[in-house]
Amino acid sequence: MPVFRRRKGSRPHLVPELDDVDLGKVRRRVETCWSRGSLDTAVMAMMAGVLDEAGEDWDRKAHRLRVLAGAAGRALPGIWRQHNPHHQGALLLHAWSDLLQARQQGSAAGLDEVRETLLLAAELLPADPTPWTLHLATLRLERRPSREMSAIWREIKARDPWNREAHLQALGYLSPDECGSSALVLDLLDGVRSVMPPDAPAAGLELTALVRTHLRSVAPGGLTALGANEIWRRPDATRALDQAAHYWPSPGFLHHAAALADLNLLAYALIKSVRSADAAVVLRATGGVGTPWPWSSDGDPLERFSHYFGRATATN
Predict the structure, then answer these.
(1) Are residues 69 and 96 in contact, defined by beta-carbon separation less than 8 angstroms?
(2) Of 89, 58, 86, nearest to 202 (Cα)?
(3) Which CATH architecture fits 1-160?
(4) C-alpha to C-alpha distance for 14 and 6, rounded to whole angstroms
(5) Of the four, 9, 169, 257, 291, which is 20 to 30 A from 128 by CA?
(6) Is the distance from CB of 13 to CB of 7 less than 8 angstroms?
(7) How far apart are CA 66 and CA 68, in angstroms?
(8) If residue 180 lies in a helix (H) or strand (E), which one and from where to where?
(9) pLDDT tens per residue, range 223-250
């Protein structure tokens, strides 16, 4: 069963492109190609166009690459690359697709080839942080030492200081589930909290870390799970929720490509912290566009999102 569902009328729905209409059109064409196992030149041109159109909005480019990689499977990006070996978007999509496959399989095999592809992509467009962001993703899979991560992180920050995808990759790398610890996550948050613009694409970093900590506490069950909600009473959590709940739902405040994903994250966190009225405001701001995570943590993501969105709009 697919994770994302198509929109029907005005009902709550999950679509990977969120509110990026142009990306949605290309994604649907790519899925059609995937189902028949071939890629025609018109769809290649559409993929090139939607990536090129992002220009130097590196955050939107990464969002579009992520969605297309999820829709294209493993074969189609390779076909596009064969036809367009010097198109930077084709190289990046091929690398992203291989990374998705490697993560799904839990294998680091073939990552040297991925890094070679990323080096070519970096040479074609030196200002783009995306090749370096994906390089960081390879380090996560291989559990490489932190000194290697630090070098790649400097390359990313020099190109796009608040890139959302890069910060989420760094958070994953530094988490206790992967290459780091809770202390290293706190170091990352302390390093960006006071200097990050409140409407930056990476504005959801702290809330992401808090929700992941909450879910990590719930996972074992028992007494540990019973105390999981205590995280939302911590001063840092209260401060993060207060600021986000005040600013994020305002029309146009968040303007990055995955703003709706961050609104979903905020709504979930507010529900877990028993701030129902604030959560309702945020849910209405989503316009009914949900995301698989973090709702999938509590069951079927569309059902969970629809449940809370319905309650929020019924009280509007």
Answers:
(1) yes
(2) 58
(3) Alpha Horseshoe (1.25)
(4) 7
(5) 291
(6) yes
(7) 6
(8) none
(9) 666 667 889 999 999 999 999 999 999 9
